[in-house]
Structures are given as structure tokens and as C-alpha cells.
Design a protein that fits this description.
By secondary structure, the chain is α/β, with parallel strands linked by helices. It has helices at residues 3-9, 20-28, 47-60, 89-109, 118-132, 169-172, 176-183, 200-213, 258-275, 282-290, 317-330, 347-351, 374-383, 396-404, 416-426, and strands spanning 38-42, 65-68, 80-82, 85-86, 137-141, 158-161, 192-195, 216-219, 225-232, 235-241, 246-255, 299-302, 308-312, 335-339, 358-363, 390-392, 409-413.
Length: 430
């Protein structure tokens, strides 16, 4: 079986918690995760944005960076960026072949007791790619949780925990404290840990984990002034001052007021890396928040006819509340919303906040077997007390057309997979 077919065949295995497999695979590869220093970023929402910002700052300082994120929107290569650019397909395939061969050897000798999951293998591929690229530094975004996530076999010098909220409760627990404990699993002895979360029940869990492991907890907002001057095309212009320096007025490159909090976490993490001896001038740290591109997050796309769609991967209630606030501010009269989501998500909790900004609701199904049917979504909309009409279009492309019949500006949200479908249509080179 060719390497990529092998990799995608593992998707059927789903999610499996535990680090035994990934440790064994890494050992079979000669532990590529030890070839470069790294930071790790965990959290419910915002961890992708913070990871992208931190990588941009390191790159602006002249470092050769690796960035590992998940999931991808359109192409698998997006998960593995070297120097800010997704790896070439042939490079990814060659690394995948190396990991596939290592897994086969380990299975044949009995060292690997079970078949690894898709995420375990993609993580190993990322580690191998960064070693081959001779990365100066890598930024690792946690996939799910933290304690048992495959990325957690790395030995990062610092960590960030962005927010703690409800998502993946079946795996992470049903209380904020339980979820926080899983996220805090990334904390290693002696490292600085920048924490964006402020809920007392989450902070106390993280603080306790830091004390137990001799790690230094750095509350991201402590001693920070981040005043929004105004929004410019949805992006915040912020006067930013931290205990380290005054950065002056910065225009964040990512849209939304919530990105101010993410920017503060990223800046504080970069400052901590500077304190550890990494040479990061102020201009590089400023570039982290002013030059980052992160597709699919409040991402405004146009079709050839000038019609627009605001895409956002708001796939849980907390993310939907952030998107709803943005829509109220930027589109006070509302706009048609295309919505699609996965079966294992809090459907009503994610849909409910968006209904106040919807002039029309078009329900669809992203191209994945994990997606909920539009008919089930229609039931959820009814129970969420949506009083408007509901249109069902099974194909995301047809759903966009249906929404555009009502207005030239629309929104598409509810799942990262739906955003990927939209990007594949309107920005296929993502």
C-alpha cells in the first residue's frame, strides 16, 4: 500500500488516548522529536491562532521554523509547515513512507502491539519532516486534550494554554476542572507556562499542576495593557504594553476582538522564550501578531463575481459565541448563514448563538462521514427555536449558492470540514 493510502486507511481507527504507540514509533525512528527545541500550545479554542502567531514571530527573528497543526482544511500538507510554507507533497510522502516502514518493523517484532491511529502517524511524520528540514525551532499545536495527545512526547521548553471550555467531553471530561487537567498534561518540569484562561476553576487546576512539576505559571494578562483603539475591516488595532516592553499601536492581522487575547498569549510566550535565551527582537514579536495568516478563521473570501462568504471554524459553543459577537458588530442587520457540523459536537449549543444574526438558514453536510445530516440539523434548529425558514442543500457548494440568492454577503460556519469545503471551492491553493 502506498504511504498516503496507508495513512488515510488509519482514519477508521478513530481516536485512541495514550502515548505508548507514539513513543514506540518515535523510538523506532531514532526520536526525531529530540532534534529540535519546541513549544507546545494547548487549549479549547485559540490554540491554532496562537501557534500560527508564535511561529510567525520566530520566523521573523530569522529562525527556520516547523509548525505542526491539525486538522487540515483542504490539503494534508497544511499540517506540516517549514518556514511558513506547507511542505511539498513529495517530501511529505517520503517522510510518510519512512514512518510506514518503521511501523511495519515495529509491528513485525511485536514492539508495537496495536496499529497506530491516523493522528499518531501524522504526528510522527511531522517530527520526521522537521528533523529532515533541520528546523531551528518547532511549534506544536495539541490535537485533542494534552495529557495523552501524541504531540506530548516532545520535550518543549515552554507551553501555552489558551482557553478552557466544553468540547470533546466524551474524551476530556464533563467539567471545566476535568478538561483543564487534561490540557495541563502538557506541562513539563521547569518550563514557563503562559495561561490565557481566567476561569477560577480552570486556573486553580493549572496552577496546581505547575506547582507539582516545578513549572512557572505566567498569567498572560498580568501586567498587560491591551487597549483596542478601533476595528479596521474587522481587525483590531491595539495599544499593547507588557511587563517587558511597550509595543505601541499594532494592527492585528487576524480578525475579531477575541484575537487580542490570543495575541497577548502569543506575545507573552515569545517573551518567555526571549527570557530563556532565544534572540527575539521587539520587531519580530510585533510581526507575530501583525503578519500572521491563519485561513478559515473569520476568513473573508470572494467568488469571481464579487460575492463574499465569511468562513469561520466555530465548531463548539464557545467558538460560536465569539463568531456571534463578531457578526453582531460587523453585520448588525444579519446575513444568511450556511451551517454544517459533526455528529459528535454540541449541535444546539453551537447553532443557538448564531441564530440571532441569521436572516436565512441554509443547512448542509460537509464532505465527511462524521458530519450530521441536514435533516438532523433542521430538528436542532427547531428545538433552538429558530422561527425563520430552513433550506437544506446536501452539497456545500449548492448551499453557498442558496445563501447567495438571499444576499451577496453570507457566513459559513459550524465545522472545520465545512470551511475546508468552502476554501477548496474559492481558494483551492490554500
Amino acid at each position: 500500500m502506498d504511504p498516503l493510502s496507508y495513512l488515510f486507511s488509519l482514519e477508521k481507527l478513530g481516536i485512541k488516548f495514550g502515548l505508548d504507540n507514539i513513543r514506540t514509533i518515535c523510538d523506532g525512528l531514532g526520536n526525531p522529536q529530540l532534534a529540535w527545541p519546541s513549544v507546545i500550545v494547548a487549549g479549547t479554542n485559540g490554540k491554532g491562532s496562537v501557534s500560527a502567531m508564535v511561529e510567525a514571530g520566530l520566523r521573523a527573528a530569522g529562525l527556520r521554523t516547523g509548525l505542526y497543526t491539525s486538522p487540515h482544511l483542504v490539503r494534508l500538507e497544511e499540517r506540516f509547515a517549514i518556514g511558513g510554507t506547507p511542505v511539498a507533497t513529495d517530501e511529505m510522502t517520503d517522510a510518510a513512507a519512512t514512518v510506514q516502514a518503521a511501523v511495519a518493523r515495529l509491528r513485525a517484532t511485536g514492539r508495537l502491539a496495536t496499529e497506530p491511529t491516523f493522528f499518531e502517524v501524522t504526528t510522527a511524520i511531522g517530527f520526521e519532516l522537521f528533523r529532515r528540514a533541520r528546523a531551528d525551532f518547532a511549534v506544536l499545536e495539541v490535537g485533542l486534550g494534552g495529557r495523552f495527545d501524541a504531540t506530548n512526547v516532545a520535550t518543549p521548553v515552554a507551553a501555552a494554554i489558551t482557553t478552557i471550555d466544553f468540547d470533546h467531553e466524551r474524551f476530556l471530561g464533563h467539567t471545566i476542572a476535568a478538561i483543564a487537567a487534561e490540557k495541563a498534561g502538557v506541562i513539563k518540569p521547569g518550563m514557563p507556562v503562559v495561561v490565557g484562561e481566567t476561569k477560577p476553576e480552570a486556573v486553580s487546576v493549572i496552577e496546581r499542576a505547575c506547582l507539582e512539576r516545578g513549572a512557572a505559571m505566567v498569567p498572560a494578562a498580568a501586567g498587560v495593557r491591551a487597549d483596542i483603539v478601533r476595528l479596521d475591516a474587522g481587525a483590531a488595532i491595539v495599544n499593547l504594553e507588557t511587563p517587558v516592553r511597550d509595543y505601541g499601536a499594532l494592527r492585528l492581522s487576524l480578525r475579531g476582538r477575541h484575537q487580542v487575547q490570543n495575541a497577548v498569549v502569543a506575545v507573552r510566550l515569545l517573551e518567555e522564550l526571549g527570557r530563556l535565551g532565544l534572540r527575539l527582537p521587539a520587531r519580530a514579536i510585533a510581526a507575530a501578531v501583525t503578519s500572521t495568516r491563519w485561513p478559515g478563521r473569520l476568513d473573508l473570501l470572494s467568488d469571481p463575481g464579487g460575492r463574499t462568504v465569511l468562513c469561520d471554524s466555530a465548531h463548539n459553543p464557545a467558538g460560536a459565541r465569539v463568531l456571534a459577537g463578531y457578526l453582531r458588530e460587523l453585520y448588525p442587520s444579519g446575513l444568511p448563514i450556511v451551517f454544517g457540523i459533526m455528529k459528535d459536537k454540541d449541535v444546539r449549543g453551537t447553532l443557538q448563538p448564531l441564530l440571532g444574526s441569521a436572516t436565512h438558514l441554509v443547512l448542509t453536510r460537509p464532505h465527511t462521514d462524521r458530519a450530521l445530516t441536514p435533516e438532523s440539523l433542521a430538528d436542532a434548529a427547531h428545538f433552538a427555536e429558530w422561527r425563520g425558514t430552513v433550506e437544506i442543500e446536501r452539497e456545500p457548494g449548492l448551499a453557498l449558492e442558496a445563501a447567495w440568492r438571499h444576499a451577496p454577503a453570507i457566513c459559513a460556519a459550524g465545522s472545520i470540514f465545512l470551511v475546508g469545503d468552502v476554501l477548496a471551492r474559492l481558494r483551492p491553493d490554500t
